[in-house]
Design goal:
The complex is a heterodimer of chains A (237) and B (116). Chain A has 237 residues and is of the alpha/beta class. Chain A has eight helices and eight strands; from the N terminus they run E-H-E-H-E-H-E-H-E-E-H-H-E-H-E-H. In chain A, strands 4-3-5-2-6-7-8 form a seven-stranded parallel β-sheet, sandwiched between helices. In chain B, a hairpin with a 5-residue loop joins strand 3 and strand 4. Classes of the chains: A alpha/beta (237), B alpha+beta (116). Guanosine-5'-triphosphate (GTP) binds next to helix 2 of chain A.
């Protein structure tokens, strides 16, 4: 019996088939939600930065030091994305700024729908509805998050010195889609073979519009350029 | 492995299309996946093979992936240089400019579906 219509004809008989033209991105639903998020952030005057890097490149540490450095001059909020645990949110909360943790329960990236939920949760936190900059710390992963627009205004990619200088060449998508490339943990340059100029040139070859800032969160080296960048995007918004 | 969640999006979309067009079986799925889409085609195909089996609608569907060339626009002379693969030359063959900006190639598109 044919199991598509239940008829008693031979199994190899054909049914009327139809070609349906679709021409729609698989990311259409995500993009639509991302646009909604962006409109929401625009109406509250918040600049949103999506941080992408491998696990352990120093995203949370950079945020901790940045919050300390700007004090009350820039109102910062954070959405933390991790596969499991509240740890990163606890570290940020200890710095006294509004933060919420999204756990993806296994998924390797945040998507726009999660951020939509997150931004409403964040607004319920004290000060969470009046932010100059919202940082979204994406799940530690240099590949998958790059495909998903969250509704951010700026995307930045971090590579730490111990990871090696070949990351732009190996993970081009994150560099294509970002506006800022942070080379982190530069205090470790004496111990690793990481030619900053080569990594910078590779990244610029992929994306000539990238801004590149080498910095160390522990020594504070390069931090002035990072803070200038933040002031700059706040002013231009 | 975000390919798996993208395959889930695709299957969801196929179910919606089948309902809309009152069809019970997907025969062929045509996708266009660009070199800068951030999608590994092998993983996408593997995910499709695995997940499509789980539903009668898609259990015998064939996935056909079109893979367009990568393009770069030269900042010097505005020529678009096409490449078969992701590897790009460092210079514009036209004017020797080295500032080449990727253009397009981030397609992740469900082009058409054959259903019965
Ligand atoms: N030497 C040095 N170590 C750093 C620096 N920044 C961060 N680290 C260390 O790197 C490790 C990881 O830092 P995190 O800030 O937790 O990294 P992350 O990117 O948030 O990690 P995930 O959220 O797990 O992806 C910690 O042990 C930090 O102390 C730096 O500038 N220099
Ligand atoms: Mg972290
Ligand atoms: Zn040229």
């Amino acid at each position: 019996m044919c199991d598509s219509c239940g008829c008693d004809l031979k199994p190899d008989h054909t049914h009327d088939s139809k070609m349906i033209e679709v021409h729609q991105s698989l990311l259409a639903a995500n993009s639509a939600m991302a646009e909604k998020n962006r409109a929401h952030f625009d109406s509250s005057g918040t600049v949103v930065i999506n941080m992408i890097s491998s696990p352990g490149s120093g995203k949370t540490t950079l945020l901790e030091k940045t919050i300390e450095a700007v004090g009350s001059s820039i109102r910062i909020g954070v959405i933390e994305g991790d596969i499991e645990t509240e740890r990163d949110a606890e570290r940020i909360r200890a710095k006294g700024v509004p933060v919420i943790q999204l756990t993806t329960g296994g998924a390797c990236h945040l998507d726009a729908a999660q951020i939509h939920k997150g931004l409403h949760l964040l607004e319920k936190e004290k000060g969470g509805d009046q932010l100059d900059i919202l940082f979204i710390e994406n799940v530690g992963n240099l590949v998958c998050p790059a495909t998903f627009d969250l509704g951010e205004h700026h995307r930045m990619v971090l590579v730490s010195v111990p990871e090696g200088p070949d990351k732009p060449a190996k993970y081009p998508k994150a560099f294509h889609s970002s506006g800022l490339f942070i080379i982190s943990k530069t205090d470790l340059l004496p111990y690793f073979d990481f030619p900053v100029n080569d990594a910078t040139a590779d990244a610029l070859r992929l994306n000539p519009k990238l801004r590149v800032i080498p910095l160390s969160a522990t020594s504070g080296d390069g931090f002035d350029r990072w803070l200038d960048y933040l002031q700059d995007i706040c002013r231009k918004h | 492995m975000h390919e798996l969640s993208l395959v889930q999006n695709l299957l969801q979309q196929l179910h919606e299309l089948a309902e809309e067009h009152r069809k019970t079986r997907v025969l062929t799925v045509y996708m266009c996946i660009g070199p800068f889409s951030g999608v590994v085609i092998d993983s996408f195909e593997f995910g499709f093979e695995t997940l499509a089996k789980e539903s009668q609608l898609t259990s015998e569907a064939v996935l056909i992936i079109e893979n367009p060339d990568a393009g770069y626009r030269c900042c010097g002379c505005n020529t678009v240089i096409k490449h078969k693969h992701k590897q790009k030359t460092d210079q514009c063959p036209n004017c020797s400019e080295t500032l080449l900006i990727p253009e397009g190639g981030d397609e992740l598109i469900l082009s058409r579906v054959e259903m019965e």
